[in-house]
Structure formats: structure tokens, C-alpha cells
Amino acid sequence: MTHFSTRAVLAAAAVSLVSVVTASPGTAMADPVKVGFVSTLSGPSAALGVHMRDGFMLALKEMGGKLGGQPTEVIVVDDELKPDVAVTKVKALIERDKVDLIAGVVFSNVMMAISRPVLENETFIVSGNSGPSPLAGKACSPFFFAASYQNDQNHEVMGKYAQDKGYRRVVLMTPNYQAGKDAMAGFKRHFKGEVVEEIFTPLGQLDFSAELAKISAANPDAVFTFMPGGMGVNLVKQYAQAGLSGKIPFLSAFTVDETTLPATQDAALGLMSGAQWAPSIDTPQNKAFVAAFEKEYGVVPSLYAAQGYDAASLIDGALKATGGKTADKAAFGKALAAAPFTSVRGGFTFNTNGFPIQDFYVVKAVKRPDGKYATQVEAKVFEKAQDAYVENCPLK
Amino acid sequence: MSPLAPAPAVPRPRAGIGQTAALMALLAAALALAYGLGSSYGAGLVTRTAILALAAVSLSFLIGQAGLVSFGHAAPLGIGAYAVLIAGEYDMTNILAVLPLAFGAAALFALATGAIALRTRGVYFIMITLAFAQMVFYVAASLSAFGGDDGMAIAARSTFFGARILKPDLHLALLAIALLAAAALGLEHLAASRYGLMLRAGRENETKLEALGLDPYRHRLIAISVAGGIAGVAGALLANQVEYVSPSTMNWHLSGELIVMVVLGGSRRLGGAVIGAMVVVLLDEALGRFTEHWKLGLGLVILGAVLFRGAEVRALLGKFSHG
Amino acid sequence: MAEPVLALDRLNKSFGALHVTRDVCLDIRPGEVHALIGPNGAGKTTLVSQIAGSLKPDSGRIRFAGEDVTRLGVAPRARRGLARVFQISNVVGAFTALENVAVAVLAASGGAFGMGRPALADPALRAKAQDVLDSVGLAGRMAVRAVEFSHGERRALELAMSLVQDPELLLLDEPMAGTGRAEGEKLTRLLLSLKGRIPMLLIEHDMTAVFTLADRVSVLIGGAVAATGEPAVIRSDPVVRKAYIGEDEAV
Amino acid sequence: MTTALIVSQVLNGLQLGVILFLVAAGLTLVFGVMDFINLAHGVQYMLGAYLVAVSVAFTGHFGLGLVLGLLAALALGFVMEILVFRHLTRRDHLEQVLGTFGVILIVTEAVRMIFGSAPIAFPVPATLAGSVTLFPGLNYPVWRLVILGVGIAVAGLLWFLVNRTRIGMLVRAGSTHRETVSALGVDIDRLFLFVFAFGAMLAGLAGAMAGPLVSVEPTMGDRILIIAFVVIVVGGAGSIKGAFVAALLIGMVDTLGRAFVPDLLKSLVGRSAAATAGPALSSMLIYLLMAAILSVRPSGLFGGRTA
Questions:
Q1: C65 φψ region: left (φ > 0), alpha (ψ -120 to 50), beta (else)
Q2: D83 in Cβ contact with B276 (< 8 Å)
Q3: Which fold is adopted by the domain B37-320?
Q4: How much is the average pLDDT of A26-55?
Q5: Smallest CA–CA separation between D142 and chain A, in Å?
Q6: Touch criterion met for A and C (3+ Cβ pairs within 8 Å)
Q7: What residue ranges do the domains of chain A occupy?
Q8: pLDDT grade, residue A230 (50/70/90)?
Q9: Facing residue for A241 by CB, picked from D8, D120, D141
Q10: Average pLDDT for residues A199-221, to the nearest whole number?
């Protein structure tokens, strides 16, 4: 059994315990704006979090390291996709680092875990991705703003698209957790045909052969799926190899995007997704953003990157409106709600619940002339859409 | 255990009480200091340390005293956390009911799985405990009424007949330290008792114990249940601190980290686990501040600690530490 | 005659094609020291394991202390008074002599689950341990860890752990192995002092010890009992001489 | 339920089993020779996938890339053994668990620093892409058939190596009579070096076979590691035959469980209950199987000794 010098270890522990406990936030100089950026940077889904953070940091860099003209300090923390870890770290951001607001958060379980302590503390959250339904509806908060979407919306896009296309029989497949169930519910909101089968898979599944065999046997008009991160890569590769790609249309959300396309490559070509943004959106801001991102990081940005970028622009705009001050929370909240920035996705306004009113598209995975893979707008499905939960939100 | 390793020194439990007391004093002092400086974050860190130390101490009892390397100790911890969540959903928040419930549920789980796991030895034991923990993980992930894979926020921190005594973080911190002290001293006492002597004898030489007419099975089962129950209490405290419970609490990495704490601090004495918990929490904290790739640093520290605890180094340090 | 303490009735054990115990019948009478000898590979260890309960015979019965124990495991047999001293000294190396004996006392007395007071603070336990350590000549070594003991001392300690249990039968598996001449003689004297009080089954290579201690001797050859009888008879048995003892060793 | 569906699910199960066998074989060999618990085996699987993916991209040729990648995996196996693992062989299991847990963290993070968190490309070689019609109504991906073939070939090769060669004899003897082998004058440490590196290469091969099917990212070894351990303890640690049988058993149970348990539950407890319980039960199935087998046979199906 290993054992170390007890006294040495004890002494080291004592010293470091004292030093960490007493570590106080930097002595008050001209207070910079402090942003706590929470993202998933380790584990199988880290790619999403890396994109979102990179988008945010790119915007900050373009603005000379300042938001709203103020010197800005961004403290990035890794939530490890563990809600309890996230809560601990977010509490540290608020209590130790005294951040002015929290930004980022990829996954909704993390968002649901941190939202209560953060919002109870009346600290603002600007979501760079997650838009869970409780925060859009009953549990909405004047301190919460989503620079992304409400979770259900991209699924609704695909349901509407399937309906418009005249598909009658579809198979739905998602991981067995809340977001998966929400995805199915979102899809069915506008799809009126027959759902032949609902397949729930364990989270983090590697091998989809059993499910693909089932799908092949059921031979539906289309498959709708939601498999974020690595699961999506597994599924797309195996879907192509099973020879289903050309045969059964593959509709998805958060499954085929620029975080996974470098891995799936040709296997994903032609697959359809619901999104509120794609690199191909033709606005000057978006063209500049996509070019800058590719130049900075060498990869095509994903919607997570675009949302991270927009989150930074949104904060920047609001800070400009308040003259760089966040102390007056009502004023800062009002400034954020006005969405004083130009989103890379085009039109963007906030609804009463802090979620955007925006357009949604069906996008298709393509190979660009330069050999890189990206999504491309195929059709606009919703125009200036609001989410399904806003009526439940008491905020007016 | 490797036949080539020299016989390890057996814990002298009584000698550990002084160390345990010193460690509790250290935690309490750190807490006082944090409050003195108005660092509620520091206080939270002390609380987290105490909670993880509680779980680590119980695992240390299993590893150091009973010789049972459980690779699934996150499971009873998670069960304790879920006990708080589920009881809260049924409006049961009284701490006098919730903590015993967490202890009982986790101990019962440990008893049931231990009864099977104890039929195996060595690597099989390590793996079967891991397997049981994975099963609990998947069960928790399928509890859609309680958040499924996402987990959910607990209704409220535990109360004392309706009084929200744990609402102030200070109270939770004090409770965690007090329970840690109680558990550590209780386990020290248990280790020194007749039961503890027999448990260690079984760890050291099972064949002989059987030849003396004693099958250590029941002793071990008791140890597993007690350790599981204590881990359950730690889980209940963790749920109260974070106010959120999810299956990720039962991730096998946490089981691994608990082993790291026990071994880093030394499994000979229960206090070692407390030291290990301090080191791991602080390492997480310090490295996490320093770099995105903090896990690389943690890995290096762990590997280095295992590789370079060579006899020479120990002999050198031993002069100072055991003098 | 009183019922034997231990009676083996046509025991058989095979490992695959290897028939290592063949129709072994053996009994040990109250108070008797019964030696079991045989060349290497005769199946002594397998037989001892079956008697102790760590190995189950393929067929045959074992009666011990008036009871059929064939299907019982090691621990239940030990609780019925079967005390085993292992071929390779089996004590808890990291424990002191006192702790070792305390373990044996507690295992025998059923106090093994006591969670109240510290075990070693019990004066009655200490007194009992002191007594038995005295009786095996380890009086001054109570607080020394067993790893620091010599072979002979460890053997004596193991014997002490057996004695403290008031055994019905001592199963001694080559107690002289690995001990020096002086230590061996000391051990022989110790066993001699117990003779008559506690029946023993002595498996031993050291013929001096065997002929000093044994009331009867059984010879195991090729897994079967070739002969049983008083030492003098065995010593002159031609089959035994030929197969095992060898002319020059036969004193 | 059609015959084609059942046949394809059985093939799926076999093929998953074969991948598990490739991973578990190295693990069980290393355990057998030195009683060594190597948690870092999963990262060797991950490294194999990365090395082969990179070599294929670099050479532009799948076969050549595969060979180069596997050689690199072998070389890395030697390096890791010399740097880390040989210093852990004579420690107790606890320290092995701890030390190799540290190796997981280090290697995973190092790969992330070099290649990033995002999954990297590992396409199926063009000639082996797509699917073939096995019989009317049953199309099956060619690559999965390749995996089946490779796995069975490796199993045959291992059987030959272990049962018909001197080194195999030593490996078998080493797992049960370590002292005897040492007494024969065989340098057990050298034997371990080769077995370890070979095991690393086998894990790498498994990674390379799985690469075109799954997401190749730094933590891909995590989940497979746990299942591989389930395989070796169910089979009996140290036994190649056990690993083979257990791998196929677990591959089958896992796949068929996922394929049929939800439907089965639907007919038993109704649709909504089945929707939640089904996936949970099918993910637990292999652990249930393991617990059941170990409670009856504490040393696994073919395990002679308790570790």
C-alpha cells in the first residue's frame, strides 16, 4: 500500500488549503467586466463546447478584448458535462470571482442545474446554446437570455419539413433522456403523419446496428433523429454503411453539423438538419464571421460557434447601451432585452421570455469546393418564429 | 496482493485518533478563516472537501481495514443523493429522517450487492463492484420521474422539523465537518474493536482465519454495509450542497477518484483519506484555474505518486514522519 | 474403546486422471499422537486438505468429534475443534504475537463481532494470551510482530493460536520443516509436553521427531495407506523400509 | 419479425463480440502473465484508432496505413511498458488501478491537446464501403463482415500462438505457475514486455476496426474499457478462450437485448413503461449477466484461480 510521509502531506495540504481559501478576488482596481464562461470542454461532447467558446473568444478578440468598450476578463470553466461539478464551479465564479454575468452552457442538464443558484442570485445568464423549456415557460426569468433558440425549435423545423414533404410514415430515434423526449415531442408538434416506431437508445451508444436493422425492416418514408456529439458521428457513419443514406431520408437536429462533419465527411453528405443558422447565410456579418473563424481556427464554424459569437456581440451591445455598467440590473436587463446587435443569422429580436424570435431553416450537409464540409441552407421553414412555451411565461 | 511486496505495516488504529482530530481542527480552521475573510467560496470548498472526505474515509475503512478494493463506491454515494431528491419530492425534508434514509438505502444496497460480490476475490471483486455501480447508474438514468439522465434540482435543502437550518452555507459546512469527525472517530473505534481486529486479520491472512474457525464473510459484509451507509450520508450532504442530483454523480470516474484519495493519503490510517480528499479537491481547483488541460496534470500527479513512492524515498521521509 | 476423535472412511480423490487419494482409512484415538509419513508425492498434502476441509473428497466419509463433517467447510470444522498448524507457518505476519493470539481467542470464543471496547484493552483476553504464550515459550515476545520471528518461534506462535482454542485435535503439517536442529528439538519437547492431553495428527519428514512423539504411525504410499502400526512395527516393516524409509535412515 | 432481421441482429451481435474480443484479448493476456490490472487498455484502443487514422491519411492507402499504424501502436506499447508499466507489475492491484487510471488521464488529455476534442475522420476504405446482399431482404455492411473476418482470424492466430508455440506455452504457464516459469530460467519481465506490447497492438487493431463505425475522439476508450473488463472477468481473467466465449456472449446479449428487449417489454408492461424501462434494462443487461455469472462462478467461466 502506498503511503507518504504523513506530516509532509499534511503540511502541504494545510498550506494549500489556506492559500486557496484565502484567495480573494483581485484587489479592486478599475473594475473590468467579468464574464464567467461555462462550457463543456472535456469528455466525448467537448467539441461542441470548444466551438462555442471559440466563437465567443473570436468576437471578443475582434473587439480588441473589450466588451462595450470596457476591459473584459473572461473566466472559462469546464463543466465536464456534470451538473454537480457545474454548480460548484459556477458558485465559484459568482462568489469568488464576482462575475457580472454567466455566459455559455452547451447542455440543458447543466443549464437546469446552474440556473437556480445563478438566477436566485440575480446574476444574468446569456446562453450560448442551451434553451430548456422550463426557462422559456413557467420558470422564465428576467435575468435569462438565450442567444441561441428554444430546444424544441430545431426539432419542430424537421417535423414541419417532413409534413411539408408529404412523408407519411417516420421512425423517430433519440437517446433515452429528457432532451431526446423533448426532441420527439418537438418533431410531432407539426408532423401529422404516422410515427411507426419511437426508438430510445442508451446515452453514449456506440453501435447502432440493432436499431438500423429495425429501421431497415420498417422501411419508413423518413427517419428523424437527434444524436448530439459522438453518438451522431457513430450513427451517421453506420447509417451510410448500412446503405440507408440514399434510400431513407435522414432528418436530424444537432446531429449533422460542423463539429461532426470533419469526422463523418462523405457519409453525411445530403443529410438534412434543422437549424437557425448555417455558414451559407448571406449577410455581410455572417460572411465576415465565417471567414474570420476559419482563419483563426482552421475549421468551419458550427451553429455553436455562431451562437457563442452572437452571445459576445449581444453582451457588447448591451454594455454599450448602459455605458459599461452592470450594477443597475434593471437597466442592464433592459439593454439586453433590446438585443442591440446584428446577429450573424440575420434578424434577431427577443421575446418577452428572453428567447429569440428568428427564422429557421432546413440545412443540408455539403462538400464545399475547397474540400471542406459544411451545412448549407436548403429551405426556410419558419419565419420570425417564437417558441411554444412563451405563453406560460409570466413575464410581459 | 503481490506476493513479492513486503508485508505492509498494519494500521495501529488508536494512533490515528490524534491525526484525525488534527485534521478536523484544520478543516474547521480553514472554514473559520474563509468566513473571516468573507470568502463564501472558500467555505464552499471546505464543505466539499469534508463531504468527499466522508466518502473517502468510508472507502478507506473498506480498503485499509477489510482489504476490499471497491471500484463502485460512487454508487452508494449516489444512492444517498437520490434519497434526498426522492424524499424531497414526497415532501420529506426533515434531516432526522433524510440522513437515516440515505444511510439506510445506501447500506441496504451495499449489503445486497456485497453479499454477491464477496463471493469473488481480487480483480473479480474490483470489477463486480464496478458492474453493480454501473447498474445503479443506468437505473438512475432511467428514473424519468426524477430527471432521468439529466437529473434534477432538489426541492429544498434539508430541514429540522420545518426549520430551514441548512439554508446558511455555514450550517451545512459545520454539519459536514461534524459528520466527518463522527464517522472518522466511529470508524477508528470500530477498527480498534474485536470486530476490527478480526476484520484486519481476515485482510492479512484469510486462510488462517478460516482455519481458526472464522469465516470473515460476515465481518466483511458488515464493513461493506457500514461503509456504503456512510458514503450514502456523504451523498446526501453533496445533494444538499449542490442542490442538484444527477446520475453523473455515479460516474465511475468518481469511484476512481475516491480510490485516489484513499491511496494518496495512505490507507493505513483513516485520516489519510481526509488528507487525500483535501489534496484532490485542491489539485482540481488549482490545476483547473491554471489550464484547460488540468486532467493531464492530475494524471501526472497520480502516476508520479504511485511510481515514486519508492522504498528509498520512503525510508528517507520515514525518519521525519515516524520519528 | 472410545470412539476415535477422527475417522477417515475410504476417502478417494482424483485430479483428472491422477488418483491421489485411494481408499484411505485412518483413525485417531483420544489422546493419541498419530504420525503420517510417506515419500514426496504420496498425497499427504491432498489428504491433509481433505481433513481440514479445504478440499472435498470424491467419495468416502470423514467423522470428527462424533459427527460426520464430510460436507463441512474449513471454518465449521475448526469451530468443532480441528486446529491446523500449517506446513508453511501461517500466522498474521503484520500482527504482534499478542494480536495473533487474540484473533485465535476471539475466533474460538465467539467474541469476534464485539464492537464496544478496543479489543486489546480487555484484561481477560490479555491474561489468556499471556498464559498461552508462556506455555509455548514466547513469554517475552508478546509485543513483537510475527514477521520478525524466527521459523521456530513462528511455529510456536501458530501452535499457541491452536492451543488457545482448546482443540479436539491438532493437525500438524510438517511442523519441523524449516526449523534448525536446536529449534526442532525445542519444538519436539513442546509437543511432547502436550502429548496425552491433545490428540495429534502429525505429518512429518523428520523421523527423529516422528519416533519420539508418535503412538502409532501410518505410511502413505501412492495415495494409499500402506501400513499402520506402532513405531517399532513400522520401522521393521519391509514394505515401508523399501518404499520409503531407506536402509540407512532406519535407526 | 422477419428472418432477415433476426439474422442481421445475430451478425451484429457476433461482430460486436469480435471487437470486444480484440480489446479483451490483450487485456486478459497482460492480466494472465503478470496478474496486472491495466485500466489504460482503453486508451491503447483509442491510440490505435488515431494512429491508423493518421497513417491512412498520411499514406493515402488503407492497407499501408493500417500496417504503419499498428506498428506504431506496437512501438508505443513497448515505450509505455518501459516507461510506466514495468514499474507497476510488482505492486498490488490497488496501485495498478491507480497508476493506470493516471495514465488514462494523461494520454487522453495529451491526445486532446494534439488532435482537439472533436472527432477526427476515419472513413471506411472505398473498396470496403457500402453493403452487400447476403440473401434477399438482407443487406449487410461490408465493413462489418470484414471485422467479423479479422476477429475470427485473430482468434485463430491467438489460439495457435498460445497452444502451439513456446512463447504461448510460457504465457499459459505464466498465468498459473509464475514461480515455475521463473525457475525455468525464463525472464518473466521480458515475456511481459512482449506480451504487453502485443496486447497494445491488438487493442490498436480493435480501435482501427471500430474506427470507421464509431466516433474517433479522445475518450472513445472509456466505455469500451469497462465492457472489456466485464468480458475478461466473465470469461475468467487470463484465459484467451474465456475472453473469446465471453466476448461473443456479451456482444450477443448486448445487441439482441437492444434489439428485442424494448419490444418484449412493450408486450409485457405496455408502451409507455417500456419506453423508459426498455433502454435502461438493455444497457444493464451485460452487467446483470456478469453479476449472475460471478455469483455462481466467482472466477468466471474459464477462470481456474481466484486472482
A1: left
A2: no
A3: ABC transporter involved in vitamin B12 uptake, BtuC (1.10.3470)
A4: 82
A5: 8
A6: no
A7: 3-149+281-359, 153-275
A8: confident
A9: D141
A10: 85
Q: What is the pLDDT of residue A1?
A: 39
Mean pLDDT of chain C: 84
Nine-digit cell string for B15:
494512533
Pairing of strands A272-275, A356-367: antiparallel
What's the full length of chain A, in residues? 396
Minimal Cβ distance to D118: which of A2, A47, A199:
A47
Report CB contact under 8 Å: B7, C94. yes
CA–CA separation, A306 and A286 (whole Å): 9
Q: B61-70, B79-88, C183-192, D74-83: which has the minimum mean pLDDT?
A: C183-192
Out of 3.30.420.380, 3.40.50.2300, 1.10.260.40, 2.60.120.260, which CATH number does the structure's domain A3-149+281-359 have? Answer: 3.40.50.2300
Contact B293, D95 (CB under 8 A): no
CB contact under 8 A, B321 and A13: no
Q: Which residues of chain D does A201 touch, with a Cβ-Cβ cutoff of 8 Å?
A: 258, 279
- For residue B279, give the nearest of A9, A41, A95 by CB distance: A9
Domain assignments of chain D as residue spans, ordered by start: 11-217
Stretch (H or E) spanning A309: helix A303-322
CA–CA separation, A235 and A250 (whole Å): 11
The full length of chain D comes to 307
DSSP E strands in chain B: the ranges are 152-153, 244-245
A198 closest CA partner among A184, A178, A219:
A184
Instruction: Give how far the C-alpha of residue C35 lies from the chain's centroid of Cα atoms, to the nearest Å.
Output: 10
Q: What pLDDT score does B15 carry?
A: 56
**Chain A closest-CA separation from residue B158 CA (Å):** 16
CA D53 centroid distance within chain: 18
* Residues of chain B contacting residue D84, judged by C-beta atoms under 8 Å apart: 303, 307
State the pLDDT at residue D65.
Answer: 94
The continuous run of DSSP H or E covering C8 comes out as strand C6-15
The stretch A3-20 carries a mean pLDDT of 54
Strand partners, C7: C27, C63
Q: What's the confidence (pLDDT) of residue A7?
A: 55
Do residues B223 and B195 touch, judged by C-beta distance below 8 A?
no
- Give pLDDT tens digits for C31-50: 899 999 888 778 888 898 89
Size (chain C), residues: 251
Cβ separation B127–D280 shorter than 8 A:
no
Q: Which chain B residue is nearest to residue A46, measuring alpha carbons?
A: B292
Mean pLDDT score, A377-395: 93
Chain C residues with CB under 8 Å of B202 CB are none
pTM for the structure as a whole: 0.83
Say whether residue B220 is in contact with chain A using an 8 A CB cutoff: no
Is residue A394 a contact partner of residue A140, using CB atoms and an 8 Å limit? yes
Answer yes or no: is pLDDT of C199 > 60.
Answer: yes
Q: Say which CATH superfamily domain A153-275 falls into.
A: Response regulator (3.40.50.2300)
Q: Which residues of B touch C104 (CB under 8 A)?
A: 212
User: Residue A394 and residue C231: Cα distance in Å, rounded?
Assistant: 103
Name the residue among A1, A109, A179 with its Cβ closest to that of B268. Answer: A1
Residue B320 grid cell = 521525519
Q: How far is CA C193 from CA C28, C189, C197, C213, in A?
A: 19, 6, 9, 10
Q: What CATH fold (topology level) applies to the domain C1-81+168-251? A: Rossmann fold (3.40.50)
What residue segments make up the domains of chain C, in order of their start? 1-81+168-251, 91-166
User: Contact B212/C113, CB-based, under 8 Å?
Assistant: no
Question: How far is the alpha carbon of B195 from chain C, nearest alpha carbon, in Å?
Answer: 5
